[in-house]
Amino acid sequence: MQIILCDSPEQVGARAADVVEARLRQGPTVLGLATGSSPAGTYRELIRRHRDESLSFNQVTAFTLDEYAGLKPGHEQSYYSTIRREFVDHIDLPLEQLLTPRGDAADLVDEANWYDAAIVSAGGIDIQILGIGANGHIGFNEPTSSLASRTRVKTLSGVTRADNAGFFPKGEVPRLCLTQGLGTIRDAKQAVLVALGENKADAVRSMVEGPVSAYCPASVLQLHRRAVVILDPGAASKLTLLDYYREAQELSDQL
Ligand code: GLP
Fold this sequence. Notes:
Layout: E1 2-5, H1 9-24, E2 29-33, H2 40-53, E3 60-64, E4 66-68, H3 79-86, E5 98-99, H4 108-121, E6 127-130, E7 152-155, H5 158-164, E8 176-179, H6 182-187, E9 190-195, H7 201-209, E10 227-231, H8 233-236, H9 242-253
Parallel strand pairs: 1-10, 2-3, 2-6, 3-5, 6-9, 9-10
Antiparallel strand pairs: 4-8, 7-8
Helix pairs in contact: 1-2
């Protein structure tokens, strides 16, 4: 796991955008998109580079990470609407190249299977952008998710529903979701996880320095060959080997 320590959330966004841009400049790219506040700065920076530096997303196919069950794509809080509002509507990614699992599918199990197969048919994800939940989840893979799981229907935990209650009138957060599995995420050729703020510090420590355990789903990234974790000072504040990560970063920046 490569740990990149940043001075500010803006720097986190810029470093993550650098990783994405480097891949985009190589040619057609399959991008995995996370929602949530953590990658928002990354998307803002990519939008800026599109506007000011002609970074193009025309050759990108994008797959979102997860979706609430029961919501139509047009619902204000669906992750499809969210990713369009916060990113896709501001770049030149053709809408037919944005894929999401449909939360309103008649058969959610079929939908999940179709979605996982669509990722494989596209050649797999080149770069998967990730945030992390305060309980260590990635996507909506809640604690105790199988480390080998594929895209499937999951029950949201009470913690996650409480965290997202503010986005729904009367706090009525859906109870089920569709999410790429931990095995699906692990198949991405590169994973870029961004975390901001002290409320993520425990989850970040478990992910990076704890045992690989379904209890901290993000710890599956320890088994990933190319995982980059980009942190602001708050999110990094509980790591034990901070000095080592700093030294490794300085040396790798010189390569
Ligand atoms: C949701 C999303 C995750 C995201 C997490 C953290 O549960 N399904 O993909 O990483 O929230 O969100 P935030 O970045 O807003 O803290």
